[in-house]
Amino acid sequence: MKTRRDVFQAIADPTRRAILLLLASQAMTAGAIASNFDTARPTVSKHLQILTECELLKQEQNGREVHYQLNPDKMKAVDDFLAPFRKMWDDRFNKLESLMKSYKNKK
Amino acid sequence: MEQKTKIIAEDGKQELIITREFDLPVELLFKAYDKAELVEQWMGTKVLKLENKKHGSYVYETSHNGNVVFRAHGTIHEFVHNQKIIRTFEMENMPIGAQLEFLEFEKLTADTSKLTIQIIYRSEQHRAEQLKLPFSYGINMAHNKLQEILNEFK
Question: How many whole angstroms separate alpha carbon B73 and alpha carbon B57?
Fold first, then answer.
């Protein structure tokens, strides 16, 4: 029986997040993706299957090869897509806050 | 730890809203934007020019190992102490283009304040490029990490 997958379950796994990061720059074959990880090839295939089922990835037939690529529409739907951007600003503002606190104490 | 910074990016819009509350009096929060030597410290970039006044302009530049990796500039349209800054901002050599920024500084209590930044992009696509940016930095970092690991095997 196939279980229903949701995107949040999909991105909860660090390997799957790493796969999404890899594919953000270019479409790749399953073999090329797997060569970036120490895990066994079937494990990577399983991750790809989950990411495809919840539509974060799209498959594209390219001659005899199947390339995986990000589905940007679905990625946008995931609030977590904003997370790196929010983190960048949060880190910056945390720095500002601690900097100005010490600035105040110096006065 | 929970992040205090909120980002609102509504679908179908070409703007972003960033809000953040600070454990700082509004005067100190504003000063962090006003003084070049402070901007340098919290933004982590060199400030080549910062004329915080109406019709003034500014230039930021960051170098890494002698190479310029980030350069941004803009002009100031309005600069009201402890209240607001209206300015343009553009990162050079990026597909994001010029953006218009409204920064509002608000006093909450004597010791706390709130900053609201509204950023308007040329189009929704330009906004998307901006949101992708830290994501791509993440990829570069992942690649660098990979390279480091590979180098160890040599």
Answer: 7
Write the ipTM.
0.80
Nearest to A88 among B22, B115, B134 (CB): B134
Given B7, B20, B42, which is nearest A99 (Cβ)? B42
Give contacts of A 1-60 with B, CB under 8 A: 18, 21-22, 24-25, 36
Mind listing the pLDDT tens digit for each residue in B58-72? 999 988 888 888 899
3-state helix, strand, coil in chain A (%, to 5): 65, 15, 20
The Cα–Cα gap between A72 and B17 comes to 22
| B54-B57-B62-B66 Cα dihedral, nearest 10 degrees | -150
For residue B4, the chain A residues in CB contact (below 8 A) are 90, 93-94
